[in-house]
């Protein structure tokens, strides 16, 4: 029996003047699933992420959350649904410690003053870094002293404070070494075990094959293939990315997309 996707995009279109950045794009993400979004530069990956996060609303199409049509017109709409993102630029404040970064923008205050004790207690109660199996000496060390992999973990732990259902990871291993990449891929596995739906944007097909359940290929702003990682070779995915093969398909082939957001 088919399950209802946690997040589904149906016939998404996005235009910038005469440029059609996205044309009838579809994507589905289930709870406890890692979906890799791949494509060459200019394929439309960034534009699609902006549609999902509300930073650049779609012009046409339908977004469904647990099978129910929703409108994502601004970042706050995405956040209220349970969609969070960690970009390649981690937006961490290096002069602050781990706790300060975890609560950056969501500080706990008492009588107008930062309650450092309450924030540290809250961080320990949630055990986010422990859940992600990240070894950080102390939560009061400056983020500037952490490794790139540890910083990634802090950025992800910060998003988990809001208890998201879908987490978008944009090129998370681009700045990591081999050992740190392996550790980060283990972290993605733990996110899946927690029941999150993960959208992984990556150019590294080795990483994709290691952790993704499914791969969605974009080419020139259109779907050009949906693949099951276990039954698809890396060569097939590359062919779809480059356009050597045309695998353009949709999740629902018979549905007309006439709804406008």
From TrEMBL:
Extract the CDD domains matched here: ABC_Carb_Monos_I
**SMART domains linked to this entry:** AAA (SM00382)
The species this protein was found in: Embleya hyalina
Q: Which UniProt keywords apply?
A: ATP-binding, Nucleotide-binding
**Name this protein carries in UniProt:** ABC transporter ATP-binding protein
Cross-referenced InterPro entries: AAA+_ATPase, ABC_carbohydrate_import_ATPase, ABC_transporter-like_ATP-bd, ABC_transporter-like_CS, P-loop_NTPase
An example molecular function term from Gene Ontology annotations:
ATP binding
PANTHER family associated with the record: CARBOHYDRATE TRANSPORT ATP-BINDING PROTEIN MG119-RELATED, SUGAR ABC TRANSPORTER ATP-BINDING PROTEIN
Q: Does the keyword Nucleotide-binding apply?
A: yes
Q: Which SUPFAM superfamilies match?
A: P-loop containing nucleoside triphosphate hydrolases
Q: Name one Pfam family in it.
A: ABC_tran
């Amino acid at each position: 029996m088919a399950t209802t996707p946690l997040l589904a995009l149906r016939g998404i279109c996005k235009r910038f003047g005469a440029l059609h950045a996205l044309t009838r794009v579809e994507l589905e993400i289930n709870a406890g699933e890692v979906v890799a979004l791949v494509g060459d530069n200019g394929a439309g990956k960034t534009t699609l992420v902006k549609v999902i996060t509300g930073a650049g609303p779609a012009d046409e199409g339908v977004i469904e959350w647990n099978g129910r049509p929703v409108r994502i017109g601004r970042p706050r709409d995405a956040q209220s649904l349970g969609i969070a993102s960690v970009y390649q630029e981690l937006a961490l404040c290096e002069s602050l410690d781990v706790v300060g970064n975890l609560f950056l923008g969501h500080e706990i205050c008492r009588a107008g003053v930062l309650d450092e004790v309450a924030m540290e207690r809250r961080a320990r109660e949630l055990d986010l870094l422990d859940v992600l199996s990240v070894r950080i000496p102390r939560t009061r060390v400056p983020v500037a002293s952490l490794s790139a992999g540890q910083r990634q973990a802090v950025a992800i732990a910060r998003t988990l404070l809001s208890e998201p259902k879908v987490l978008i990871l944009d090129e998370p291993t681009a700045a990591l070494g081999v050992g740190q990449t392996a550790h980060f891929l283990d972290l993605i596995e733990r996110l899946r075990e927690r029941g999150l739906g993960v959208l992984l944007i990556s150019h590294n097909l080795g990483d994709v094959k290691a952790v993704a359940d499914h791969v969605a290929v974009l080419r020139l702003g259109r779907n050009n293939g949906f693949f099951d990682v276990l039954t698809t070779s890396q060569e097939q995915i590359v062919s779809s990315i480059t356009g050597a093969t045309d695998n353009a398909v949709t999740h629902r082939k018979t549905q007309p997309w006439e709804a406008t957001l």
